[in-house]
Amino acid sequence: MTRNSLRGDLERLGLRRGDLLMIHAGVRSAGRIVGGVNVLIQAILDAIGDEGTLTAYVDFEPFFDESDDPSAIPVFDKRIARAARDHGVLHEALRAWPAAIRSGHPDAGVVAVGRLAAWITADHPLQYGYGDGSPFEKIVEANGRVLMIGAPLDTITLLHYAEHKANIPDKRIRRYRRLMPRENGPAWIDIEEFDTAAPVSDRLPEGCFERIATDYLAAGMGQQGRVGAAAGFLFDGPGLVRFAVNWLETFAGPGSDAAEDAAARLKRRARSARRRRASPPGGSFGGAGR
Fold first, then answer.
1. Which of 36, 50, 71, 177 is 20 to 30 Å from 248 at the Cα level?
2. Torsions phi, psi of 193, nearest 5?
3. Which segments within the chain are labelled E, that is strand?
4. Residue 170 is part of which domain span?
5. What is the pLDDT of residues 138-179, one digit of tens each?
6. Mean pLDDT for the chain overall
7. Number of domains in the chain
8. Is 172 helix (H, G, I), strand (E, B) or coil?
9. Rounded CA gap, 167 and 248, in Å?
10. Do the domain assignments include residue 290?
């Protein structure tokens, strides 16, 4: 694959100039790219143009354990902290991209390149960093989209924002500390957020992110294609979040039915959504909105 052929694949998938994208990629799945991961990033930037913005969730690779001597743990420095290794090579490449801007949250951190990069990454709250005021919320507010290239559907980080917004009882809360730079020198900061390591509530099934994305696609929403040899998906950010919040609350919200009944209701809503999308223009939004 070349820069031009990849751009063609991306445009056929639905990318357009001015897009705000959050990307997840398993670059190896795309096959052999002449020039490697940098060329894939260039192809995406070509497709969205100078007025577009490309973002990615980076987290960080701490290279220390919580049990290590606190005096030996380095302060988090967003300028040099590497993206988490399990996110793949593209996320680290984008973090190091010229003019890339990274938000200030160590664990919920987002990197951005393009017109809206400074706004998206500014003032990232340390508390509940996937929720209100976060880059994830800003991406939704600005009608951003999620681009998946050879990445599993259960890795859509924007769905953590949906977990934050959904009215679900008994959400697990995680509390931890990070050594952060401060005006008067490094300081240990206590951080609290909803647990993102597994479904946020025991009421939810394992693999619920993949199930949400699959149900969204089955309802006739989103776009699918190939980017090189990889499966490509394009999701509307606000629509996906609305659908996910509804899915989560239907499955696990207050007064929800048993899981089997909830799944049956979701299937009925997906069929209803397909019928609405097939009806003449002028109807309401064709997703499972709140």
1. 177
2. -160, 165
3. 20-25, 53-57, 101-102, 110-114, 145-149, 173-180, 187-194, 223-227, 230-236
4. 3-278
5. 999 999 999 999 999 999 999 999 999 999 999 999 999 999
6. 90
7. 1
8. coil
9. 8
10. no
289 falls within a domain: no
72 and 85 in contact (C-beta within 8 Å)?
no
Report the candidate in 111, 207, 110, 202 with the shortest Cα–Cα distance to residue 161: 110
How far is residue 133's CA from residue 166's CA, in Å, rounded to a whole number?
Answer: 16
Spatial contact of 132 and 188, defined as CB atoms under 8 Å apart: no
* Mean pLDDT (whole number) for 101-107: 97
In a domain, 251, yes or no: yes
Q: Classify residue 73 as left (phi > 0), alpha (psi -120 to 50) or beta.
A: beta
Nearest Cα residue to 219 out of 139, 273, 290 = 273
pLDDT for 163-219, tens place per residue? Answer: 999 999 999 999 999 999 999 999 999 999 999 988 999 999 999 999 999 999 999
- C-alpha–C-alpha distance, residues 24 and 78, integer Å: 20
